[in-house]
Amino acid sequence: MSAREQIFANLKDALENRSTLAARNAAADARINAHPSSLIPVRGQTHGADRITAFISEAELADAEVVRLESAEQIPSRLKQILGDQKSVRAAPHPLLQDLDWASTSLDVAFGRADPHDAVGLSVAVAGIAETGTLVLHTGPNSPVTLNFLPDTHIVAIHAKDIEGAGEDVWKRLRHEGKALGRTLNWITGPSRTADIEQSLLLGAHGPRRLVILLIDGEKDSPT
User: Fold this and answer.
1) Alpha-carbon span 121 to 124, nearest angstrom
2) Which of 47, 52, 73, 94 could form a disulfide with 142 if both were Cys (CB 3.0 to 4.6 A apart)?
3) Does residue 49 belong to any structural domain of this protein?
4) What is the maximum span of the chain, computed from C-alpha positions, in angstroms?
5) Which helix (H) or strand (E) segment is 178 a member of?
6) How far out from the chain centre does Cα 42 lie?
7) Closest alpha carbon to 92 in 148, 153, 163, 136
8) How far apart are the first and last CA of the chain?
9) Is the distance from CB of 134 to CB of 104 less than 8 angstroms?
10) pLDDT for 196
């Protein structure tokens, strides 16, 4: 037996001596099912209009731009205004985005995962966090993870109803919904940034240098 194998064997024996495997499994299952809540700061306990106001404030403090929309149908026209001369958009193949009237604009919208040459990415967030102005995006066929990192400008649509007070509330809701979320959940607060180089803030170091949030105030128009 090697030294490595001996160490693991000793650890295994120590654990087995403390309790039976069945007891340990039961304790782990009980903790997972209980989902004990953490202490939530006051600013994460907002509700209603105050929650939306807090989300916008925190998102803008993190250098994100927030554009409020009455409905998802306004996304194409507002996107054209936001992008100006930029015409090409790589969008997530999400039902909310695919069902929109893109033909009414001069935008060249292609659906799918982003490539390094894509300048603009358009995604749909599964949740938002008012406490920190954070967006939560899952990965999957309708939400390619490359859209979150490759384009220089990242535009994310989110329904106001999907904004939670704190991060713990997001996990609670996602567990309750029981939806498949893919391999990764990306939590995005503002555009990409770093201050590693001479302590000078640099945007776009590891991802988009511009983040625009399309906040849809109306009822959900399409399944998420």
Assistant:
1) 10
2) 94
3) yes
4) 71
5) none
6) 22
7) 148
8) 53
9) no
10) 57
In the chain, the amino acid numbered 119 is A
Tell me if 209 is assigned to some domain.
yes
Q: Are residues 18 and 83 in the same domain?
A: no
- Which domain, by its residues, includes 8? 1-34
What is the identity of the amino acid at 136? V
The span from the CA of 55 to the CA of 59, in Å, is 6
Are 156 and 137 contacting, i.e. CB atoms less than 8 angstroms apart? yes
Sole residue written with tokens 């999907």? 162
Asked whether the beta carbons of 192 and 203 are under 8 A apart, the reply is yes
CB-based burial of residue 151 (10 Å sphere; 0-12 exposed, 13-18 middle, 19+ buried)? buried
**Percentage of the chain modeled with pLDDT above 70:** 88
- DSSP code for 104: G
pLDDT in tens, 3-36: 888 888 888 777 666 667 777 788 778 877 776 6
Residue 53 lies inside a defined structural domain of this protein: yes
* Structure tokens given for 125: 């967030």
